[in-house]
């Protein structure tokens, strides 16, 4: 009987703690997670460049895929963060950057390195745009 009381008390405490977070606090937490995910994506892209410089194509692809996941996660958390209108364009730029990265992957799968580079550069431009918008606000 005591086990059930303990489990019930713990569950109630957890619900109480999670239910007490204000919407503004949750939005701020989502914003912070989104920024962290975006930064992780940039770190992974840096690893891609280093791996390609060292002729490590498999490692570069692994880091590239991780960057895609990080940026995609950032978009999800930014959407949950209920950003002010001034920062909504950053989310749009992130989405465009992610689309460009996905096009770069498809171009690489077709062995079109020139097109892949074009899409990669386009993605970098969108990510930089998103970063500048977020830093300015």
Describe the fold and architecture.
- By secondary structure, the chain is mainly alpha-helical.
- The protein contains five helices and no strands.
- It has helices at 2-19, 23-53, 57-80, 85-109, 113-136.
- Helix 2 (23-53) runs antiparallel to helix 3, helix 3 runs antiparallel to helix 4 and helix 4 runs antiparallel to helix 5 (113-136).
- The termini are far apart.
- 23% of the residues are buried.
- Residues 1-19 have low confidence and may be disordered.
Return the average pLDDT rounded to an integer: 78
Order of helices and strands: HHHHH
Strand content: under 5%
**What is the makeup of the main sheet?**
none
What's the short version?
The protein is an all-alpha fold and 137 residues long.
């Amino acid at each position: 009987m005591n086990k059930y009381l303990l489990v019930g008390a713990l569950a109630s405490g957890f619900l109480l703690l999670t239910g007490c977070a204000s919407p503004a606090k949750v939005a701020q937490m989502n914003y912070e997670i989104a920024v962290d995910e975006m930064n992780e994506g940039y770190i992974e892209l840096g690893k891609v460049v280093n791996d390609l410089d060292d002729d490590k194509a498999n490692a570069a692809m692994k880091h590239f895929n991780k960057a895609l996941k990080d940026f995609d996660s950032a978009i999800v958390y930014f959407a949950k963060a209920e950003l002010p209108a001034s920062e909504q364009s950053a989310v749009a730029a992130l989405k465009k950057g992610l689309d460009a990265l996905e096009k770069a992957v498809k171009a690489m799968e077709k062995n079109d390195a020139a097109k892949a580079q074009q899409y990669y550069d386009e993605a970098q431009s969108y990510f930089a745009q998103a970063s500048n918008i977020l830093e300015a606000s």
